[in-house]
Design goal:
Helix content: over 70%
Number of helices: 11
Distance between the termini: 30 Å
Radius of gyration: 19 Å
Low-confidence stretches: none
Shape: globular
Structural class: mainly alpha
Number of domains: 1
Number of strands: 0
Strand content: under 5%
Length: about 260
């Protein structure tokens, strides 16, 4: 990989963001409005139920946007190029898919941290909840959520390469399925027992359970964090291999160019 080509991808992403109202709406405006609504709901709950239940909503919403924006930056970054009929042209140059992905991941990290910080400030102003209460473990939670988001982004992008842009809606929809079975806003015990296999094979479950546990008791569930990291590694390796195979198929079959038609 060459750093100057990754820098070019980042610069390309920056130009797109600064000139696309739709991108600002998808990545920044909508998440901030969602957080505002959820924070007000949490503040309402806090006056009627336990603060732990309200905190769960706050934690889920602030940290969920890391996952949403990270995965959308990987899959959506390619879709923006496909829609503008320029994706295949990128690879006429010496740019590799790995370099493109690296650039989109860095871009996704910057964008997700921007929204995360705004959400954290909003949560503190409205609900007086501080993410800094997690201490150094805050960095661990963020890293594990980012890795998972990149894995799902690669999965979605691989499916688009394999089956075409007719399934592009997965860029918005698939990740929300993981939110349901990842116990983002509620305890894992809320989900029915028959969903246990999906629940406990999802890194999000362990990450958000660990966050809620630390917030409520101060206990650091290192066991859950190790399992989450292990699952993250499995997810990202499998999704990366599937993406590369799908990309090669798209090039060999010519569908990579036809998607832009």
């Amino acid at each position: 990989m060459k750093l100057y080509r990754i820098k070019a991808v980042l610069l390309h992403s920056w130009y797109h963001i600064t000139h696309s109202v739709e991108t600002w709406t998808d990545l920044f405006w909508n998440p901030l409005l969602d957080m505002l609504v959820y924070f007000l709901i949490a503040a309402s709950f806090a006056s009627r139920t336990t603060s732990a239940q309200a905190d769960s909503i706050i934690i889920g919403n602030i940290f969920w946007n890391i996952v949403w924006i990270g995965q959308f930056s990987v899959a959506g970054g390619a879709l923006w190029e496909i829609w503008s009929q320029s994706f295949s042209n990128l690879f006429v140059s010496s740019l590799t898919l790995r370099e493109f992905l690296t650039g989109q991941m860095i871009s996704g990290f910057i964008k997700s941290m921007f929204v995360f910080i705004l959400g954290a400030l909003l949560g503190y102003v409205i609900y007086h909840f501080s993410v800094l209460s997690f201490g150094v473990w805050l960095l661990v939670y963020i890293v594990e959520l980012l890795i998972f988001s990149y894995a799902v982004g690669m999965l979605v992008l691989g499916l688009i390469f394999r089956f075409g842009v007719q399934i592009q809606s997965l860029s918005w929809l698939l990740i929300f399925l993981y939110r349901i079975i990842g116990a983002v806003f509620y305890a894992a015990t809320v989900l029915p027992g028959w969903m246990g296999w999906a629940l406990w094979s999802n890194p999000l479950t362990y990450i958000f359970e660990a966050m809620r546990q630390q917030n409520a008791t101060g206990y650091i569930n290192g066991h859950y964090l190790v399992i989450a990291m292990g699952l993250d590694m499995v997810y990202i390796v499998i999704c990366y291999m599937a993406l590369m195979k799908a990309f090669q198929y798209a090039k060999d079959s010519g569908s990579l160019v036809r998607m832009e038609g």
